[in-house]
Amino acid sequence: MRTILLPMAVLQLCMVDKGAFLEVLRLCVSAALLAMIGAQPAFAANTPCSGHKGGISHCQGSTFICNDGSVSASKKNCSAEMGGASSQPLGLIGGGSAEMAPASESECNCRGGHFCTGPRGGHYCITDSGRKSYLKK
């Protein structure tokens, strides 16, 4: 019953005063636009290795290895997300892969699945471009 009364009230405003009707119409359109703009961030979602990292190359245990050779800071589990993907490129069938392991020497290559420990205990590996990529704790 109330849903019928509102359009009738708007029609009565239209008959009485066109200026008031246009103001109500502007308010309704503004409210609808604000509702659509406010809901938009809910559709946006970051994925592991998104942006300049170029997407996911492969999994190293639960860690995402990106196409640029860095490690993703994602809290998601790569093996669970990718269905137990191996350290081979995505799309190839293979067994599970081991977690990132400490480097035996100074070989801290992210693609190789090895990390080094910094002077304050942080774990990092070296990307394809030679930069450090820190692993999440």
Brief synopsis:
This protein has about 140 residues and is of the alpha+beta class. Helix content is about 30%, strand content about 15%.
Distance, first to last CA: 58 Å
Series of secondary-structure elements, N-terminal to C-terminal: HHEEHEEEE
Q: Could you tell me the radius of gyration in angstroms?
A: 27 Å
Main sheet makeup: 4 strands, mixed
Total of helices: 3
Kindly estimate the percentage of residues that lie in beta strands according to DSSP: 15-25%
**Which percent range fits the helix content?**
25-40%
Uncertain residue segments: 85-95
Structural class: alpha+beta
Widest sheet: strand ordering = 3-4-5-6
Basic shape: rod-shaped
How many β-strands, per DSSP?
6
Round the mean pLDDT to the nearest integer and report it: 76
Describe the structure.
Helix 1 packs across helix 2. The longest helix is centred in the first third of the chain and has 22 residues. A hairpin with a 2-residue loop joins strand 1 and strand 2. It is built from three helices and six strands. It is of the alpha+beta class and 137 residues long. Strands 3-4-5-6 form a four-stranded mixed sheet, with no helix packed on it.
SSE arrangement:
Blueprint: H1 2-16, H2 18-39, E1 56-60, E2 63-66, H3 78-81, E3 101-102, E4 114-117, E5 123-126, E6 132-134
Parallel strand pairs: 3-4
Antiparallel strand pairs: 1-2, 4-5, 5-6
